[in-house]
Amino acid sequence: MLLSNTNPNHCMTLKAAILVILVAFASHAYALWPLPKQLSTGSTTLKLSDDFDITFDGDSAPQDLLDAISRTKDFVHNDKLQRLVVGRGASDTDAVSSAQSLSSLVLSMDSGFSGQMRSLSEEAIDLLELRVEGYSLTVPSGGSQAELKANSTLGLFRGLTTFSQLWYDLDGTAYTVEAPIAIMDEPAYPYRGLMLDTARNYFPVADIKRTLDTMSWVKINTFHWHISDSQSFPLQIPGFPELAAAGPYSPSMVYTAEDVKDIVDYAAARGIDVLPEIDTPGHTMIISKAYPEHIACAEAKPWASFANEPPAGQLRLASSSTTNFTQTLFSAASSLFSGKYFSSGGDELNTNCYDQDPQTQDDLKKSGKTLEEALAGFTQATHGVLHEKGKTAVVWEEMVLEHNLNLSASNTIIMVWISSAHAASVAHAGYRFVHAPSDYFYLDCGAGEWIGADPEGNSWCDPFKTWQKSYTFDPLANLTEEEGGLVLGGQQLLWTEQSGSSNLDPIVWPRAASSAEVFWSGPGKDVAAALPRLHDLGFSQGNCHSDTAKLDGIRTWSSGCLQVMKSIRNSKR
Amino acid sequence: MLLSNTNPNHCMTLKAAILVILVAFASHAYALWPLPKQLSTGSTTLKLSDDFDITFDGDSAPQDLLDAISRTKDFVHNDKLQRLVVGRGASDTDAVSSAQSLSSLVLSMDSGFSGQMRSLSEEAIDLLELRVEGYSLTVPSGGSQAELKANSTLGLFRGLTTFSQLWYDLDGTAYTVEAPIAIMDEPAYPYRGLMLDTARNYFPVADIKRTLDTMSWVKINTFHWHISDSQSFPLQIPGFPELAAAGPYSPSMVYTAEDVKDIVDYAAARGIDVLPEIDTPGHTMIISKAYPEHIACAEAKPWASFANEPPAGQLRLASSSTTNFTQTLFSAASSLFSGKYFSSGGDELNTNCYDQDPQTQDDLKKSGKTLEEALAGFTQATHGVLHEKGKTAVVWEEMVLEHNLNLSASNTIIMVWISSAHAASVAHAGYRFVHAPSDYFYLDCGAGEWIGADPEGNSWCDPFKTWQKSYTFDPLANLTEEEGGLVLGGQQLLWTEQSGSSNLDPIVWPRAASSAEVFWSGPGKDVAAALPRLHDLGFSQGNCHSDTAKLDGIRTWSSGCLQVMKSIRNSKR
């Protein structure tokens, strides 16, 4: 029992308890998320000087790095995150007052670096295997300068983010109680993503940018943008004005080419690649509103015979006209994005839809192909367009686990989603893949059956996936060492049948930070040890009425707030 | 299939589909929530005139009613809710343009009314059995005036709310397509509540007021305010400065006497009574921070042996000093509230806490009482103070189902929470009660185990309670007709271990509107029929980027948004 209720000198006991808590806190930099690969901390208090500056030692730093430096300076000077201890750091007053001041953080390229620096935005969209995100960061205990070094602009940017997370506020002074700090860091996996479905509900550009801010804060580097689905097609694609007119929920619920560029540029300047997805050949009913000739079983009923959710509708993959249409669509859509990956979807294809579609049956008959052969032809043709444009195709797992399409292993990446147990099968097939399993990473589970008419209905992927559950994911489970090399990383995903702009932040954060740490820091860490850092992460984002809301994204707790946290600590079994 | 994909004349087919949807919509006033007891609607389009006014026919209307009239006028003139149809009402343009205009709504007392009008705020805190909330409302199809009549100021206020829900916006014009409208309305049950726990997390006054706005919008009439718990005591009570200092999470996370008055007055002016709860004798660890002498097993470990969640701590109910302390506390706390009900809590009392507490054992020995006898004495003494102040005591179900305390049936109200199956037992015991069962009405379920260390942990009241589940609640299940008379009503509840200011709105709304309709309109209604109205309710509150956010509370969908809704409609099995 930390706080004795029998000791008459209650204040003394309370003070002792606070000291115990302080000691417990002093061993790690709690606000860090994800944890660096190597971290050592001391116990000296150090503050940022009033004129603390961040500079780049070298010539011709890319403008987007300079912009990031500027944002970081602004952040550390103005952030109001207080320590997650009783009194929120008031007991640090004397130590901060007498602490030495850090006057600068100096960025430079590693001594081994040669060649021309590239911009952060360029490096953010490199091929995954070429992306360099490591850095080293040292913060001295005295007043000399802190140093951040990397072999890439992207690495410097990741280091800036880490540096931002080292400081607490006490009455306007940024300080740490853990100097000196030495960090050597690099990600365990190159792909750390977040998927957002903007088809079931539309999200304004501002929502997406706010989400990108928070993603960047936890070093997520891929925004998997599930743009379109059967319910809506909110993307304006040059050459497809009818789709732009009929596809969005309303004329204002649309992403213009300018919006896309805005999002892509904003993301890249924060170290994030955009992986766009135009889901095909299933999940395409909405295309029938503009081009009915290309869609089989559009809104057919009973929908459950034709699709996994209403409304049914799939591209007529056996039609050469529809194949051409999709090729043109992919060509134009993929041109809006600068990244090197593009998802053609491929999930939940319903064969009955085609069995019942006279035109498809006619097309198959004429060509002498089976449906599987037609699907293979359609996929190869549409992926061919992507490959010509220098893009690697990304598909959901069914495209290799349920169909035999002979997809190129070098030019195709698989998203494992139905079950974490399917990862091994994808690996056996020799494909590189991303872990996106519903049983660990789906953020939408557990809110009931969305179609609405069944009071006892549960969501298909019940229960709710807690951050703790996601945090325990093992990327290498059931894989051989060689197969482990096919793991690109992983991501959490928000399907938005039951979410919208109004609950985006609390349904995504802080849970999506869970996989961000798994795939940056590596798996196998203890949830109890992570909890204080996750709390600090959330506090840093303005929950519990701390004074800061710098990054608006992370706000809500899956485990309550400071004082509940304190209660747990004081009451550990 | 509404929209044929084989018809080459696609536009014609689409138009036909829209017409089908319009017809489906024309039979009910979709934006109404809760449904009035009697509702008849026509099919004439009627709009509000630009100078539409609301007047009171009579003299000396209470100021709070005049204020409500003023807010209603402002609302109907400025609300931007559009019809939940394809095109959001654009197809109504011609009909609206040529529609007759309604120039006024006239409020008056029923012809049978005699006596002096009382203020809305007074009537809102009448005893439940004396509260009069019925009204009649007629809106003609022509340009004559609409009329709202009631036997009480509170009834007029409820009618104003209903009137507010009748109108859609089309380019700045408020209109209905369902005139004439005739409504006779009164609630099925007098108690329709919402409970908010401000102890596990603190909520600023603005959050509470915003929640009160939305409660009023759906005719919820009781704010059950679970003020304190083991984690914090955020209420400043005159005479208890030490508790005010040690109880809140931080000095700013506190409700002052002025805050309480502000909340109570705001609620009453919106037809809402505040039922405060100071949870005792369990759930009181935090009191030990100010008065350790009154708390047994404060923060004792392992906490699971001493409480249902950490931190443990219970009032020393066998101590006469602690009993006096609690009496004084209740007396001072209850004086802050104008209502006639006060909850003393009474849930989850842990007997081991007292078994292991030397002082309690000593107190029991000296008095020769059993623990049960001491609990009876404590409860009668503390309730006695409430009764002296004219308050009816409210307690959680254990106080009558697990203990034999001889509580007055006339002066005690029971909250059934552990299971809906326990309602019958409470009724058998002869107590009036409120339905607050965790298996139907707990808003916090389904987000994992909040203490945080168990990745496979589920919330104790899994699964998530969907609005549909809550909507199917039967208040009279397993009750005799006579026992049915003991049902005061019901409420949904938010315990806040896993919620805070940042997710308050989406976790509460629209789900809490579910019980509001059950207990106003009566149970047994169909969820599929309710869904469009619930969508309209949510849309009216600014979800899905409609332009209005008049009442900020209701924002998030348990079933997605307009177009998903449309998809379901078009795809009904």
Overview of the molecule:
The structure is a homodimer of 573-residue chains. Chain A has 573 residues and is of the alpha/beta class. Helices cover 34% and strands 19% of the residues of chain A. Chain A has 21 helices and 16 strands. Chain A has helices at 10-25, 63-78, 93-98, 120-124, 153-164, 205-217, 241-246, 257-268, 320-335, 351-355, 358-367, 371-388, 398-401, 423-428, 438-441, 467-471, 481-484, 504-508, 512-521, 527-540, 562-570, and strands at 38-56, 100-109, 135-139, 146-150, 168-170, 173-185, 191-197, 222-228, 273-280, 295-296, 314-315, 341-345, 392-396, 412-416, 432-435, 487-494. In chain A, the strands form three sheets. An eight-stranded parallel beta barrel of chain A has the order 7-8-9-12-13-14-15-16, surrounded by four helices. Chain A has a five-stranded mixed barrel with strand order 1-2-4-3-6. At the A-B interface, strand 10, helix 16, helix 18, helix 20 and helix 21 of A face strand 10, helix 16, helix 18, helix 20 and helix 21 of B.
